[in-house]
Amino acid sequence: MSDARATTKPVPVPTVDSEGFWTACAGERLTVQRCGACGAAQFYPRNRCTACGSADLSLIDAAGTGTVFTFTVNHRAPTAAFAAEAPYVIALVDLDEGPRMMMNVIGCAPAEVSIGMKVRIVFEARGGMKLPQATPA
């Protein structure tokens, strides 16, 4: 029995908390949550502020720029859907607004990626959605 997921990249499934984030991504806008009580910015979208516990959260547009905090080069694709891209970079990117996001670094060779590298966010179309990815700034 074949598994269609093995040849198709996974697509996020929006939740009540993340729906606004994914809607913004569809319009190629990166957003993070901002707490109205303490001002903290956070990612991933959730129903409470991780800093103070407040439910007073709203989505704000992010600049779409950041810095590579750390990364790894994946040489073995987890499924056939990623095989053509291997080796590829998975990075933790510190957004200029503060939150840290995990994403791929695209648009350059893996050997060109470095800790501290400035990046900008671009969007990859996938299964009717758009996912944030990083590319050299």
TrEMBL record:
Every ChsH2 rubredoxin-like zinc ribbon domain range: 22-57
SUPFAM superfamilies named among the record's database cross-references: Nucleic acid-binding proteins
A Pfam family reported for this protein in Swiss-Prot or TrEMBL: OB_ChsH2_C
Occurrences of domain ChsH2 C-terminal OB-fold (ranges): 61-124
Coiled coil residues, start to end: none
Residue spans crossing the bilayer: none
PANTHER family: BLR3430 PROTEIN
Designated name of the protein: DNA-binding protein
Lineage: Bacteria, Pseudomonadati, Pseudomonadota, Alphaproteobacteria, Minwuiales
